[in-house]
Amino acid sequence: MQWRIGNGYDIHRLVAGRPLVLGGVRLDHRLGLDGHSDADVLVHALMDALLGALALGDIGRHFPPDDERWRGADSLVLLDHVVALLAQRDWRVANVDSVVVAERPRLRPHIDAMRANLAARLGIPHDAVGVKATTNEQLGPVGREEGIAAHAVALLWRNGP
Ligand code: MG
Question: What are the structural domains of the chain?
Answer without folding.
Answer: 1-156 (3.30.1330.50)
